[in-house]
Amino acid sequence: MRSSKLVLLAVLASASFLSSAGVLTAAESQKLLKDTPFEEIVAKAKAGDAAAQLHLARGHIGMESYVPHNKAESHRWYLAAATNNVMEAQLYLGQHFYKEVTATRGSTPKDKAMRQQTAPVALSWFVKAAKQGSFDAWVALGHAFEEGTVFVKDPVEAYKWFHLAIEKGNHPIGSPVRSRNALSLKLTPAQIELAKRRAQDFWDSLGEEKKPTAPK
Questions:
Q1: Helical segments of 48-188, H only
Q2: pTM to 2 decimals?
């Protein structure tokens, strides 16, 4: 099932986030907090420090051995970090809520209401990460619009995100060339041109500091 591809995205390994000092990777933030006592990291996170919030979010799901495992706390800190404009956290939440929708297959009114309420939340977080130049968010959106199981099926929009990831992304090895090529066989030349135009418009809308380096 294609939705499993979203689960396989390298969220924690490759994402980065913005801070007042510029763009820092998760590994760099971890290095900054390496010798900081746990209690102080918690205090920093509560005070709104993005690096500390991400550190706790990752730590509570087992990314740091000295942080107590607590999925609820991890989610709380991912939400705090995402609200604090941390791209990795925004992508994580997009995946989290997307999987919540796909996991709820019931046909009761409650199940349907849950899917209707959660799908826009997933889309919102994916788009926030995408606007920060997240390659993984671009690919995730491509698969999501191609599938049409959570968002409205839109092959033109799917082509847009795949095209953006291939032409402007900084992970050429993981570029979804096959997915874009498969869609190109289903779309008209006019639709493909529209998708490429949408991709370029989106790219132009990003600030220079959010644009990843395109593969050579």
A1: 50-58, 71-83, 87-103, 109-131, 135-147, 155-168, 177-184
A2: 0.82
